[in-house]
Amino acid sequence: MEESIFEAKDLTKKYKGTMALDCVNLTLRRGEIYGFIGENGAGKTTMIRLITGLSFPTDGKMTLFGKSGAKELQKQRARIGCMVETPALYKNMTAQQNLEAQRIQRGIPDKECIQETLKLVGLTDTGKKAVRHFSLGMRQRLGIAMALLNDPEFLILDEPINGLDPSGIVEIRELMKRLNRERGITLLVSSHVLSELYQTATQYILLHQGHVLEELTQQELDEKCKRHIAIKTNDTTKTTTVLESALHTTHFQVMPDGVIRLYDNLDNMEDVARVLSQAGLLVTGLSLAGDSLEDYFLHRIEGD
Amino acid sequence: MGKLLHVEWYKLVRDKIYWILLAVIVLVNLIILSGGQQFSLSGYSFLKNIMQKEVITIMMASIYGGLFVGRDFEDGTLYHEITAGRSRIQVLLAKTIVFLLALNGLILIFPLLGIIYCTLKNGWGIPFTAGMEFYLLFVFIAFVLLNCAIGMISMLAAVCFRDVGRTIGIPIILFFIMIMLLNGKYAIQYAHFLPIGMLALVTNGTVHPVYGMLLGSIWSAVLFVISALVFRQAELR
Asked: Which residue windows are transmembrane per the record (chain B) (predicted)?
């Protein structure tokens, strides 16, 4: 059984009449990169605040590294690295001094980790420049460096590519993947740039109006978003038989609403239509379909 | 706790605003007092006089309190300690201790320099009697504790409002209210309860410094407890 890093049971957070999280049940397993998806106000940052101890749940239970209870959760947070919303930086200090403050606070004995972390995020040449003079992208990188300094087991990044230029986005994406692959760090990444998240995450959590709408793996998402011919006929069973016998394919899936998703013959839509008609089926829908993560997310929240 | 104190100290030492303000306070006091006879007084007389003229210094130091504490809330840097699994009370305590040391540094730098200068130049002024060292020590501790009580207003404002503007603004408003009360009909009565009034009473010898120590301790402790209660359950955004 895979070890769970974080578990939420009926986790609820209410702010003056607004339900930010409503009985959320969630399990994050070690070694995955979780993409946290949701509109503004869906509850992503609230969830991150609860995990990091910046906020308290109204109800429900949290377990971090298998431990629960306020004292234990507090202790376990030492194993987390996080950047919540905008990077929290000492603006009058340099990048190195920011990390030195973090090193002291975290009780890390090895001073070498500062240079290593700066190198990791590409901030080695900032010298004596105070953070207040940094660009948004540089601040973002430093925020990630602050989160990484203690070599966390669980890294939480809220909008990590905010303000980064295209090459910076690629670098941070690769960094996240490398941290996951080489150090086994579990990541929880929230972002509005879903195309970017799609290239990083191995698991997705769709949050909508304080509820977990869906949890799915990369494979499941690929399956659901895959390009296909969506076929709707008057007889689903007969259609599948025709597809198998006439087109010699089993690469299709019958969806709960009766739509058949055919994943091959994508370039032969006319043949598919002809075969179905010849079999005496009434074709009520035949179209080429396929979702991006954005499309899929939008369809899901519209259907909720 | 040691690491938290260390990191707060690290931040204070690297805060240019603090050192600039320290220099400005010395300069402002020199300008204000340059026209008078203050620097021809003995060390003891200078001590008696100076704390009653420190109103502007205390106000400037309170402004720094807003910056030192409020900035940490506004920039979210205080949250590093909490997300690292530190106890909120310890985080607040470490911040409070370093902040109050910094505040006392700002308020007491000029009086201490002035006393040393006047004593070296004009002598101590009165015979150094037995027990005087304890009296002076008590006066010093009373000053420190009363300054702490004044500084704790900034700390409470920071914890309640979590931004720089109000953390600076609210203590200044309270400060002016205290000054008005201390210039009113019941000034002496209020002076016995308000830290800034007690500073004057201790300085001019109206009350024994032990009362100042007691009042400073009570105000500091009460304001810290309220701050801790607010901060313990605060939703940090």
From this structure: 17-35, 55-71, 92-117, 137-161, 168-188, 208-231
